[in-house]
Amino acid sequence: MNKQQGNFFSDTLVMTKRSIVTILRNPLIFIPNLAISMFFLFVYEAGLSGIANLPAFEGANYLAFILPVSIVSAAIGGAGGAGQALVKDLDNGFFSRLLLTPSSRLAIVLGPIIAGMLQLVIQAGLIICVGFFLGLEVAGGALGVVVVLLLTLGWGLAFAGYSVGVALRAKNAQSAQAGTFIFFPLIFLSTTFVPYELIDAAWLKVAASINPVTYLFEAMRTVLIDGFTDTWPIVLGFLVIAGLCGITITFSAVSAKKAVSTD
Amino acid sequence: MNGTIHVENIEKTFKGDVKAVRGVSFNVADGEFFAFLGPNGAGKSTTVQLLTTLLKPTSGKLEVAGYDVNKDPEKVRLSIGVALQETGIDPDLKGRELLEFQARLFGFSKKEAKKRAEELLELVGLTEDADRLSGKYSGGMRRRLDLAMTLVHQPKILFLDEPTTGLDPANRKAIWREIKRLNKEEGTTIFLTTQYLEEADQLADRISIINKGQIVATGTPAELKRTLGFDAIVLQFDEEDEAISAYEAVASDEYQTERVKNDVTILAENGTSILADVIRKLDERNLHPAQLNVKPPSLDDVFIQVTNEQKEGGLNE
């Protein structure tokens, strides 16, 4: 008899591959996501670039400043799609079949999470390309681009983990969608459009300082605008995102165990 | 590892104090074909989910393939194949891809998975449609693919939750043939749930009738028919007075008679043979039923019978 407990890595690989195939077979879901994040980059750059003339910007390129916002907000479609994929699996009974295999619950949730993360990284790559087309200059050079993509990867894992966890708790598309609304306070209660020093309201300063996305923005902006002269914001960004990944992926794996039971 | 199931006094209470399973116990031997027969909402699916690691019982002991379901869910999953009431198919994958995917998760190498998928496609007659998206399959094809996915790792025990509900007769027969073969030729233990008396009768070595979360009767099909196999003669009258008189006229020690308002029901082992007698008795008193029906034992009658006896407290487990 051939049966044996599957290997964690090969299970995760098989699950991820299947999620990617499923995404690619539904282009009408991922193509609008790609388009919308590039649209935001255009709009922010066209409408807000005048802010960069303010002294607090110290002559920085606004495009480099706003690019992280475009990348981070792309997660709602890209990485957030992982949650929608999960709801579909729950609806058509495929998720129960996955739970009946000997694969670990973590491998089962990592499939859609990694696929969502990859989708976000590809989106980010395209956004950076469009950025270069618009005149983006990256102080950190090629290595800087790699660091930004690595940060994106971490953010993608964290956000996809969250959206999968919410989908497993909510079990329907509407509630899962509602769960992604946390994204709005995350992205806007931060140093989204102006640097920390220029935030006026005291409450927003407090919100921004406890918002993990702020550290992600700071890390990406440091690399894009200043390069590697001050590495602490970059390290801090990676630490915060790693912590966030740990929390959200654990949340989704624990939710997977409870997904079918109604107690 | 063996193909046995051992269940001791399991209970499952859902949120809101909904008691889906109330103290169920049974044993299934290695290689046995065992059926759970019951109406919708009897607790059949909940029992399957408890046995297959998808739900945790509120209390009780569950052993499947020799492993404690609570302590060793992974080992249980390796030993069992489960086809739930709702098929578990990703419509965005092709039939062949789904089978290869399933095989990979059960530890097959890429090459082995390919080979196994090919065998199973042949087995369930889907070779020609293997490279079409499963979302485009008909209901019967989806059922067959679902069964094939269940069989990927050659499980020792097969759980089938209402595998033929909603299928046309041809597809139903095809599924029956295959599960019969698995049981007879490969010695697979089978735990099947069904709402159809005929299905349990045709397939199972032993049947438990489950109602409202409890087992109300257990036996071989022949045994159950002996205890429950009554024809029902139903007499309907326009007036309740007539029904009362008719009840007095036909009541006998040889069979069971019941009256509910204008209806008199006679449950007899051989309804047609006493029919003439019943009509003669009614004629003598000049009673004329508005309607008269003779029905073979239906699942409904079995339930009326069993639950009546349950109320009277006179039923064996």
UniProtKB/TrEMBL annotation, chain A:
Pfam families: ABC2_membrane. The keyword Iron-sulfur does not apply. Keywords: Cell membrane, Membrane, Transmembrane, Transmembrane helix, Transport. It is found in: Cell membrane; Membrane. Residues 28-259 form the ABC transmembrane type-2 domain. It is a multi-pass membrane protein. The chain crosses the membrane at residues 20-42, 62-87, 108-136, 142-168, 180-199, 232-254. Belongs to the ABC-2 integral membrane protein family. PANTHER family: NODULATION PROTEIN J (PTHR43229:SF2). This is Transport permease protein. It comes from Jeotgalibacillus terrae.
TrEMBL record, chain B:
InterPro entries: AAA+_ATPase (IPR003593), ABC_transporter-like_ATP-bd (IPR003439), ABC_transporter-like_CS (IPR017871), ABC_transporter_ATP-binding (IPR050763), DrrA (IPR005894), DrrA1/2-like_C (IPR025302), P-loop_NTPase (IPR027417). It is found in: Cell membrane. It is a peripheral membrane protein. One of its GO terms (molecular function) is ATP binding. It comes from the Bacteria. PROSITE patterns: ABC_TRANSPORTER_1 (PS00211), ABC_TRANSPORTER_2 (PS50893). Residues 5-237 form the ABC transporter domain. Keywords: ATP-binding, Nucleotide-binding, Transport. The keyword Transport applies. Belongs to the ABC transporter superfamily. Drug exporter-1 (DrugE1) (TC 3.A.1.105) family. NCBIfam families: drrA. This is ATP-binding cassette domain-containing protein. It comes from Jeotgalibacillus terrae. The lineage of its organism: Bacteria, Bacillati, Bacillota, Bacilli, Bacillales.
